[in-house]
Amino acid sequence: MATAKSVSNFTINKGLTNEFILTIKQNDALLPMIIEYSDTFKLLLINLDTDQVESTIDMDSTKADGFIDVYDDANGQIRVTMNPTLTNRLEKERGPKEDRYYLKPTYRMSIECNTMNNGNFVIKLKNISVD
Questions:
Q1: pLDDT digits over 27-86, tens only?
Q2: CA–CA separation, 83 vs 94, rounded Å?
Q3: Strand 53-57 vs strand 66-72: parallel, antiparallel, or unpaired?
Q4: Which of 2, 21, 112, 131 is deepest in the core (most CB within 10 A)?
């Protein structure tokens, strides 16, 4: 089953290690999905202007850009870790002074999930800013 989940705004801190804990819910429910040992997750960070993939992060903890691991399997939580190797090269954009230098989104993110309990689905984070 392919279902897309969506989140609006998200900020990555430039030059730092970023850890995000995401809770995955069951289909058609507010309860968290139980994550099984065989479940896999892959994140694609995509530049909004060029549609080019900036980085691919998966469950391989040896990659320089970062990795995804299961934070709390019973409560459906995964942890995404982005290392400074990745966050240092991300583009940061701000609005003009008269608009209080608001952050402009420069990336979008898709997390491909392959799970036993919910099947295959994609989580989309559409507006990612860098600060």
A1: 888 999 999 999 999 999 999 999 999 999 999 999 999 999 999 999 999 999 999 999
A2: 23
A3: unpaired
A4: 112
Alpha carbon distance 100, 85 (integer Å):
29
- Residue 95: both structure tokens together: 């609005």
- Is 89 a residue whose pLDDT tops 80? yes
Query: Which residue intervals of the chain are DSSP H helices?
Result: 84-87
Answer whether 0.85 is exceeded by the pTM. yes
Number of H helices, E strands in the chain: 1, 10
* Pairing relationship of beta strands 4-12 and 119-130 according to DSSP bridges: parallel
Count of all residues that appear for the chain in the document: 131
Work out the angle at residue 111's Cα, subtended by the Cα atoms of residues 110 and 117, and round it to the nearest 5 degrees.
140
